[in-house]
Amino acid sequence: MNTTTLCKPLGCLALFSVGLCLFFGCALIFVAQLYGIDGPTVQEGQVRAETLLTALEQYKTDTGTYPPDLQTLIPAYLPEIPRPAPRWEYTYTVETNGEGFVIFFEVGRNFDGDYCEYERETKAWRCSDAI
């Protein structure tokens, strides 16, 4: 038997298999991002925000107001802005006078728009009822 003849079909089969795996892998990543399958749970998002909340309070202690945006905390207060999950971000809004803020993140392991937000006044997380 000629090994060259045998290797060519196997090479095509291997190439087809690799292509098929790449296609389904990319499709899975797309669906995960689209539907939030890889998003944070309530607990993950809250725990990962602890260093961010500490940095915000330290900034306020040092300057008298909260920062206008989270990037202001880098590098003096944080090496980078933490994320509730990879590819997900916290949303930060500060009051116009700089005296208060809200941190917000979407809970991504379900499909109904659940979220959690931290209010500085109460120093507590409040999450949507559907969670």
Structural summary, described in words:
There is one protein chain. The protein is an alpha+beta fold. The chain has 2 domains: 1-35; 42-127, Pantoate--beta-alanine Ligase, Chain: A,domain 2 (2-Layer Sandwich), CATH 3.30.1300. It is 41% helix and 15% strand. The protein has a 4-stranded antiparallel β-sheet with strand order 1-2-3-4, covered by helices on one side. The radius of gyration is 23 Å and the shape is elongated. It starts with a helix and ends with a strand. Residues 26-36 have low confidence and may be disordered.
Q: In a few lines, what is going on in this structure?
A:
This protein is an alpha+beta fold. It is built from 3 helices and 4 strands, in the order αααββββ.
Write the layout of secondary structure elements.
Elements: H1 3-35, H2 42-48, H3 50-63, E1 91-94, E2 101-106, E3 115-119, E4 124-127
Antiparallel strand pairs: 1-2, 2-3, 3-4
CATH fold category name of the largest domain? Pantoate--beta-alanine Ligase, Chain: A,domain 2
CATH level-two architecture of the largest domain = 2-Layer Sandwich
The total of beta strands comes to 4
Span between N and C termini? 64 Å
Any low-confidence stretches, pLDDT <50, length ≥5? Answer: 26-36
What do the pLDDT scores average to? 80
Please, how many domains? 2
Q: Which sheet architecture does the biggest sheet show?
A: 4 strands, antiparallel
Strand order of the largest sheet: 1-2-3-4
How much of the sequence lies in strands comes to 5-15%
CATH class of the largest domain: Alpha Beta
Order of helices and strands: HHHEEEE
